[in-house]
Amino acid sequence: MKPRERFHKTVSHEEPDRVPLDLWITPQAYESLRDYLGIDAPETQEWGIMSVWQISEEMLQRLNIDFRRVYMKPAADFKAKEYPDGSVETEFGCRGKWIGKYWEIVHFPWADFTEVEEVEEYEWLDPEDPSRLDGVVEWARHLHEEAHYAVVGMVGGPWGVFEVCAHYMRGFDKFLMDLIARPKLAEAMMNKSMELALDMNAVFLDAVGDYLDIVQVGDDLGHQNGLIMSPKMYRDMVKPKHKKIYSDIHRRAPHVKILYHTCGAIEPMVEDLIDVEVDILNPVQPLAKGMDSNKLKQKYGDRLTFHGGIDLQQAMSSAGTITDLRDEIDTRLQAFAPGGGYILAPAHNIQPDSTPEKILEMYDYAAKKGRYPIR
């Protein structure tokens, strides 16, 4: 069965030949795996989630990955400025730098804003710069017409309406306080982000929407033990913006599925995410509070496809054994896979402490044990 056919049967809640596999991995873990396998093939495909880097087709085939990715590009004339503290400016105006193994935002351009007018007058990047699509349409068409993989599309830059404000533009602590103490300012920031998302999606989907199977979006709503905001606050302030963005995606590309990323213990909001037209939920963090795989499948499995689920905190970490990993994969397959509706992947980016042997075992064992019928 071709990967795209496998994907579409899965999201239609039918059982394909096997559970589809996807790869989320840090550059460091990928490089360790590449060197372990001795793969020296050209790294020509853009990959990555939190940052975009390149991977080889040989590696994707070795791991039986059913998905390929298409990214909207930064504007060709944007020149990133480096600052004395080592941080680098992005097109959005925020600045980040590598701290250990993670690229962290260290400068927030909206940090000192106090008035709605300051937000409204802030000069965003130009979504319609034609260089953002240089080579993108051709690559998407190739993947769709010749490669037969399920094609995932992503616009550039930070995602969503909450996360772009909290993590990139305002600062997490300030924006959480804004939601309560300065709600008009918070609304202005999220509206500004929403309008940019609508504009970027329009440019991207009008060009490559016919060649995509998935559009990837997200807004982190949870942490390990609960929600970042109350369900009421989400429903009053964030949900209408999600609804507008995702409805517009489905209007422009009715055949695509929306993959929504949120970490953490977000079970109380799953029904809301279904309501805003999310089709696929990622990463289904299994050790977070209330994220029991069997209960999620029983409650939402006829309306939602689950993507991820393989624990990184214990089973895939340095503390876990190969036996732990196999048990983990068996547990997620038995919970999520029956009747379709499950794409097996790690519950976020595979971290550098996951050994190459363990990463290989994850994908080889999943490809073997994920064949239907699941027993």
Detailed description of the structure:
This protein has 375 residues and is α/β, with parallel strands linked by helices. The chain has a single domain, classed as Alpha-Beta Barrel (TIM Barrel). It has helices spanning 3-11, 27-37, 57-62, 116-121, 136-147, 163-169, 172-181, 183-208, 231-252, 270-275, 293-300, 322-336, 356-369, and strands spanning 45-47, 53-55, 67-71, 88-89, 95-99, 102-107, 150-154, 214-218, 222-223, 226-227, 257-261, 280-282, 305-310, 342-346. A hairpin with a 2-residue loop joins strand 5 and strand 6. Helix 2 (27-37) packs across helix 13, helix 6 (163-169) crosses helix 7 and helix 8 (183-208) packs parallel to helix 9 (231-252). The longest helix has 26 residues, at 183-208. The model has no long low-confidence stretch (mean pLDDT 95).
Keywords:
7-stranded parallel beta sheet; TIM Barrel; 375 residues; alpha/beta; globular; 3-stranded antiparallel beta sheet
Summarize the structure.
The chain is α/β, with parallel strands linked by helices. It has 13 helices and 14 strands. The strands form four sheets. The chain has a seven-stranded parallel beta sheet with strand order 3-7-8-11-12-13-14. Strands 4-5-6 form a three-stranded antiparallel beta sheet. It has a two-stranded antiparallel ribbon with strand order 1-2.
| Largest sheet entry | 7 strands, parallel
**Structural domains: how many:** 1
Oligomer type:
single chain
Structure class: alpha/beta
Q: List SSEs in N-to-C order.
A: HHEEHEEEEHHEHHHEEEHEHEHEHEH
Q: Report the principal-axis shape.
A: globular
CATH architecture type: Alpha-Beta Barrel
Mean pLDDT: 95
- The low-confidence parts are none
> Kindly, what is the distance between the CA atoms of the first and last residues, rounded to a whole number of angstroms?
20 Å
CATH C-level category: Alpha Beta
Strand content: 15-25%
CATH topology term? TIM Barrel
Number of helices: 13
Q: Tell me the helix content.
A: 40-55%
For the largest sheet, list the strands in their spatial order: 3-7-8-11-12-13-14
Radius of gyration: 20 Å
Tell me the number of strands: 14
